[in-house]
Amino acid sequence: MVQAIKWVDEIVPGAPYVTTLETLDKYNCDFCVHGNDITLTVDGKDTYEEVKAAGRYRECKRTQGVSTTDLVGRMLLMTKAHHSNIDEDLDYRKHTDNFGKGPKGHSPWTGVSQFLQTSQKIIQFASGKEPQPGDTIIYVAGAFDLFHIGHVDFLEKVHQLAERPYIIAGLHFDQEVNRYKGKNYPIMNIHERTLSVLACRYVSEVVIGAPYAVTADLLDHFRVELVCHGMTEVVPDKDGSDPYMEPKRRGIFQLVNSGSNLTTDLIVQRIIKNRLEFEARNQKKEAKELAVLEAMKKLEEEKQPGSPQS
Ligand code: C5P
User: Fold this and answer.
1) Closest ligand 1 atom number to CA of residue 260
2) Is the domain of 46 the same as that of 153?
3) What is the signed CA dihedral for 274, 278, 280, 283, rounded to 10 degrees?
4) Taking every annotated instance into account, which residue ranges of this chain make up the domain Cytidyltransferase-like (predicted)?
5) E strands within the chain?
6) Average model confidence (pLDDT) across the chain
7) Domain count of the fold of the chain
8) Which of 124, 156, 214, 292 could serve as a FRET partner for 39 with CA atoms 20 to 30 Å apart?
């Protein structure tokens, strides 16, 4: 998955948990980067102590409102409050003391908060490149929910179909996905799915809220030469018609075998099966983060003029 992220050049499988200067030198890295949340060793020491002391550490801000805890909460609670058009009053975070602990008493890193899509964020993730003459424009559509290795394998296979592919991924709106997947799907809303798919190196462009049926208008608008779908079921449109009728009629439709059986449903089932473990892990993680936060606050207070220690 990480290899498929377009900003990643090389992977070190099984890297040590604590990054040492020796590790950085071994892989010719100038510095080590981590988000601005705290990670600790078992003895409660900062994981990046050594690289920080050597001036070979950089930090970037964590994306607000995107956390594993929140995603797991959506799966377990079966809520739809995360869907992009949902009324604020229905937000489960205000009505539960399980995963959504409300504004008080949760860590800003592991806890939940609302993700807000901005044009800056999209620009940061987008390729910004238009298709060039000689590129083969390929269209794929779907939910791409909880963007996983099945999606990556599929997109990689599609990417191999042309010498210079320009892949456009059409993402269905939350209500559309909910119509054909049921339950509280999608787990990630359209904003979150957009960024996940844009981060993939095989994708050049995303249609945010693609129509379910791949129409003549859409194909002409983007000058699509090929439309692909994996081996997963194609659910008929509302009127019972095949959403790929037009590309099939034009003879530009191709089924692609990703070779992966992973689905969003399987991931959710796996997580529900392990729910107790997940809850315990998250509670422990959050308690640890809260303790660090308290300690940081105390240090700050002690630094203030007028405090007994100053
Ligand atoms: O299910 P979803 O709409 O997210 O799938 C998006 C595309 O990825 C579809 O073409 C689907 O067939 C493909 N896919 C795949 N192999 C998987 C999972 C999805 O080829 N394991």
Assistant:
1) 21
2) no
3) -160
4) 1-72, 140-230
5) 32-35, 57-60, 136-142, 165-171, 205-208, 226-229, 253-255
6) 88
7) 3
8) 124
Half-sphere CA count of 294, side-chain side, radius 13 A: 8
Question: Ligand 1 within 6 A of 254 CB?
Answer: no
Question: What is the Å distance from ligand 1's center to 41 Cα?
Answer: 38
Cβ–Cβ < 8 Å for 257, 232: no
Same domain as 70, residue 58: no
Tokens of 242: 């095949």
Q: Could you give the percent of the chain with pLDDT greater than 90?
A: 66
Residue 294 inside a domain? The answer is yes
pTM (predicted TM-score): 0.85
Give per-residue pLDDT as tens, 259-293.
999 999 999 999 888 888 877 887 887 888 888 88
Q: Token digits for 168?
A: 């456009």
Ligand 1 centroid – CA 266 distance (Å) = 13
Q: Which domain holds residue 206?
A: 119-262
Q: Is residue 235 part of a domain?
A: yes
The yes-or-no verdict on residue 102 having pLDDT over 70 is: no
